Amino acid sequence: MASISRALAHVKNYFTTYVPDSMILETCQDVGHEWRERQLGPVVTTYLFLQQIAYGNTACTHLRHLSGISVSASAYCQARSRLPLEFFERLQARGIEAVRTRLPRVACRRWHRHRLFFLDGSSFSMSDTPELQEHFGQPVGQAKGCGFPTAHLMALFDHPTGLLRKTMALPVHASDMAHAAALHPELRPGDVLVGDRAFSSYAHLALCQKRRIQGLFRAHQKQIVSFRAGRPHQPLRGATAEQKGLPSSRWLKRLRYQDQLVEYFKPLKRPIWMTDEQWEQMPPSIVVREVRYRIRVPGVRTREVTLVTTLLDPDRYTPKELARLYGLRWRLEVNLKHLKQTMKMDILHCMTVAGVLKELAVFVIVYNLVRRVMAVAAQRQRVAPDRISFIDAWRWLQEAEPTTALPELVVNPERPGRCEPRVRKRRPKKFPVMKKPRAVLRKALLAM
Description:
Layout (H helix, E strand, L loop, with lengths): L1 H10 L3 H4 L2 H10 L11 H13 L8 H5 L5 H10 L2 H16 L15 E10 L4 H7 L13 E10 L4 E8 L4 H5 L11 E4 L6 H9 L3 E5 L31 E7 L2 E7 L10 H5 L4 E10 L9 E6 L9 H9 L2 H13 L10 H29 L8 H10 L38 H9 L2
Parallel strand pairs: 1-4, 4-5
Antiparallel strand pairs: 1-2, 2-3, 5-9, 6-7, 7-8, 8-9
């Protein structure tokens, strides 16, 4: 018992403020996990895992230097594997709730009394093992043995706090739409969900309306949109040659210039991600609003954006406000960059599916703790939470103790209209791409 107490004294840091010992032990009991008292019990193992992720998913062999606990990489990995996946999933949910309920009020402001959420898809890579290859697959175009398993990541972010509310790690070829509805239970009636054109299908808009969730998405590139008043539309069946090429939506009302109400009709073909029963419950049509605006900022690649939304009131939600709201979606890309590049979540290191999902859950916990630090610093320094440097907050969190006072963090300058080319100045070393399995290439080298 004395060795366990010494181990806890080494690993306790700022994480214990929002992930205390009691939460870890209660979560173990809730999922029915049984354990015996040892140096690497659930509490010490969890804190070591949090510390590993907080240091950029550092190597397991590095932990004995960080924590001061003499533990081998093998023993630590075995201790992690003893904790069930459900434990980490529940701990992630509890950690999110603990952070969310203790955020400063200034960080929880709403948009027209609506809570805002941003939804997007991304990806991350992992170790090349048979189990991960079978579960996640790898991108098309890579020969067998020459690529790495890749997961399709679905992420739901809270605005303006930047909290990561929910993640889903799916096979690489999974469709965004096939799993977007699985994130709806995280939302309440009246919440606004913002996403790109991948989420603007009829089925998703209808599901949002059914749950009384407001949606704002960019119109799909295949959706024909015309703002001509009283224009004709092509029917779902039996369209003539003259009708082909017309919008499939029926024009209802002009609200403003390039702002209109239209009626979307239920397609004849069911989406492959929906069951027949779910498809039958979809309404025959829905009323949505289409808004188009131009971007006149030098250096911005996109010049014209067409939005489709269930926010139908033109006086409460003006086109300018909708355009500004959709423009905030770019912050989601920045949040994903912090996760994947700053915190190094672009490559996970576990060898099993359960291990990868555990890593992802701990990444979410640590990321949300960083966002909480940013929110507290923003209130104290009287700036918006997004102005606080994520990297500075992350570095402070790595070293902070439970009683360490939060110093003034770096505030990023406001740079409206900033334009930078997407190029790299530093030249990477040039090596040929692997097009044959390593064993084949090694054999060829030995034969020379």
